[in-house]
Amino acid sequence: MNRKSWQFTVALPVVASVLALPFVLSRLPGLGLAQVPLGVLVGAGEFGVAGLLSTVVVSLADRDQVGEHNWLAITRSPLLRPYRAIADRFPLPAVLGLFALVAVATEFFARAVVAGLLGGVPAVVVSIGISCALWTVTAGTWRTARLGLVAGAVTGLVHGILFVHTGQLAPLAAATLTFLALAVL
What we know:
The chain is an all-alpha fold and 185 residues long. The protein is built from seven helices and no strands.
């Protein structure tokens, strides 16, 4: 992966979120800080489901048996290379801070800005699409992109439904941070 794709992966949600911040803050019912512990549990559950589904997808696509060599295939995927590069270069507190920044920006952009304008089923569909796009933007091959589609579908569906029903961002950012931490660290 080249440096520009790494920068694009991290910068796109951050820049879009900053530009939309005044508009979205005026429309949000609350951030949901009290629900952050539940968001951590949601993120761990999403990681488990996406890990299992990524293993099944790789096994079916490669016509291979499920085993240790492909278990939790997403954790070894090139899709996480930008995050692994961050984890390799910085101390753990800085890594968690950077992951949290990416998580907040992603949730703000994907849910509050885009899905928040739609509401209902269209918001969930758009949430899935944005999550899949963000997960696959750095994929160089279809083989890599299929894992991003699995992770994007799982996180987009869960986060879209939760945002439509609660309107809270903090637990969703905690879920994204937890997913990234479990997948990379």
